[in-house]
Amino acid sequence: MDDLIADFVAECREMLEALGGEIVAWEAEPDDRARLDSIFRFVHTVKGNCGFFEFPRLEALSHAAEDALADVRAGRRQADGQLVSAVLAIIDRIGEMIASIEAGEEMPGGDDSSLIQALEPGADGQAAPVAVAAAEGQARTTSAPRTIRLSVELLDRVMSTVSDMVLARNELARRLRESPTEVEVGGAFERLSAIIADMRDAITRTRMQRIENLFVGLPRMVRDLSAELGKQVLVDIEGGDVELDREMIEMIRDPLTHIIRNAVDHGIEKPADRLKAGKREIGILSVSARQSGNQILIDIHDDGRGIDGKKLVAKALDSGFLERDEAAKLNHREQLALIFEAGLSTAKEVTSISGRGVGMDVVRSNIERIGGIVEVDSKLGEGTRMTLRVPLTLTIIPALTLSIAGQNFAIPRSAIEEIVRANGESVTLEHLGGAGVATIRGRRVPDVSLAEILGLDSSVEEIDRTLIVLRPAGGDLYALSVDRIHDHEELVVKPAAPAVMATGLYAGTTLADDGSPILLLDPAGIAEVGGVRLEMQERSARIAENPTASITAATEVLLFRALDGSRRALRLAVVDRIEEVLVSAVKKAAGQLRVQVGEAILPLAGAADVALGGDKVRLFRLNDGTHEIGYAFAEVIDFAVIDNDVIHADRPGEVSGVSLINGEPAELVDAHWLFANHVGAAAHTSEQPVCRLPSDDPWMQNMLRPIVEAAGYRVVSEEEETDADLVIAAQGAEVPDDAAKQTIWLRTEPDSAGKKDESIYRYDRAGLLMALKSASAGRGK
Amino acid sequence: MNELLLVVTIAGERVAIPAAAVESVVELDTLIAVPRAAPHVAGLSALRSRVLTVIDCQRSLELGVSDCSDGIREAAVVEFDGHHYALIVDLVEDVIEALSEPSPVRAAMEAGWERVSKGMVDSESGPLLLVDVAALIAGTSEAKAA
Asked: What residues of A are in contact with residue B46 (Cβ under 8 Å)?
């Protein structure tokens, strides 16, 4: 609490100092609206804060002054000399009281009613002059603060000096390496290095604060407020670990407080009203902070009564902010934005908490001063969401350094979704009319070449580049191809000169550890310059629909040499892991070869008719979801993708077909047959569950069928007359009611349409297996 | 006391920069290019852990390009609008005292000079053109449009 009071005192003192000139100017020109506004903001801030700290005298004074000034602002009253001097007397009295709070003294006794009286229109007589200077002089000598307020410039200077020190240290380190030095010198240098590193760390931290520091006072404030208003409010706070520049935290403290006051006062209804509206008695106020791209987003959401846009418009029309024809053109969002106009508020009654339309214009001007944005969204009856977007510049951000044509750049890590190599197996690059398109695991994203955007000559071939998949704040995914990536670093980002920012490509500049400048790339700007059409691509276009493409992408195989020397391939998905066992662990038992792996005994395939040489044998552990078998092999050759036609074997057997893989023929091992023969005989003696698959759907037959069969189902077509346990159909297809006991719907897009959508994404293998398993388990019922 | 002037040579011409605007004179060695920036922005450099935006004065005046290939360039460091800039010049000569207030130049100058001119000042070494630092930094009008 003491800290908070100290902050309050310091803040008031700063404002008083800044106000000194304004007051004099206002006195000379009482009609000056800007001066009036700033004085009004001061008394409003004092009023808000002392309500919280319980300084009733201060509160009464500031409330009275605020009332009078509000009348002037609303045009109900003219600012005359008498009012001006009454307000000045009050401000002086406030200054005096603050001085005594600072000194830790008891609030001096006294009666303020004469001052308040003097504000009344028509009141005569001058308020008693107050000996402010003497009081202040006294207070200063007695105060002994435990904390001091430093200007950020001073911190900046210290920080830059420390950075210079690091550079000098690096230089010294290089010199020391070049010339032979004694051990003692080296030791001393090490110590110096460690101290400098510590110091740099500490200085950096003086500027950074977890936003928690800002949030920690909120629950108490909301509790007090809601108690006073007879409301019940639950505060939900998230994201306190987001780090923000200290200065930024100071800058958003007031706006945040105002917004929360407004939310509790005007947003959330009284318990009885909430019940009437069919809501829970307790209102929920959630405050969350997160980093998004190069911005920090702070969301304040209440589930209260919301803002009535129409009422705002009516109010704006009344007070002459808005012309009638303009008003008609406003959309919902623009109507809500009226809340930020000075002197506008929908509150019916004026309370001591907030509600004279001062809060929101102050909020906006404060946020915009630091280059931020305030957004408001509200649904009448359902609640209001205020979003503060604060820029990241001046904050330390984690970034990835990368290079293109030998020059280093950095990119904010928060925008990075993933990093893939352009020559990776799951990546294909294509050019359509000069534009690059990358297909990454079946997902198509625009491919932007950083070298091209920057107009640099890159010596790295397109295929050898690295793709950084980015999601800029508020934008759509795209891939940025760069020569190579280097390192993750924490960088102190500073705004760049206007001539540099004008390119739209950079978010700021920073210094690397070696002291050289690095440009921080702006993912959203690059997308714009690179012509990535944000939000323009339809969702379906992002999923490669072409079935042949899917098969090529999906059929990854493990190429190996079998014990008999033949070149074979096995679908990668069925291979669980590779084990090495002693030859003695392989025994013929219960009619077939079995191998002991750890505690388990698995049927062994691939080793029939071959004498096992050596003392160890390596095997693949294959898994179909329920059963495991071993498959012995000599050596793994490579991972590969089947991209040629498969020539199918005439009859079912261990090998289902042959195909050219990496230029040489390889036999494809039929995992299904393996399981059917090695496990199936034992495991599926009982009746197999039956699954109905549409016979005319090539995807179902080619892709899905092996999985369904591997899960122990017998697959039948839709015409076959039999009782099926399960039918699998594409979402939206028509399935007769009597087709099967259960139905699994498959959709082609990864994201479900909603909570009620029980379909499974068709490449969600785990989900599919789960559904297959539960369907076969539940068939007895 | 009259205004102090820093006499520099840009594109072979001796001109004066108000010395009050100049923080220091440095020799730049490293220069990091800023791709896609206006042509007169030669790049970035660091000075005592501050990032300097390097302006090629010759380019800003549309009088050709300063040769940066030999690595080390003399530059005057100025602060303008909260950012630090290094102005690459051919040569930094001296600081001298202005003997007159700037007066308009009534002869027709080249367009680039015309744009950055703040007038003519007298000095011990004859009349000098007083250059507007802000205009040098802003560069040509096309540069702004670009």
From this structure: 511, 515-517
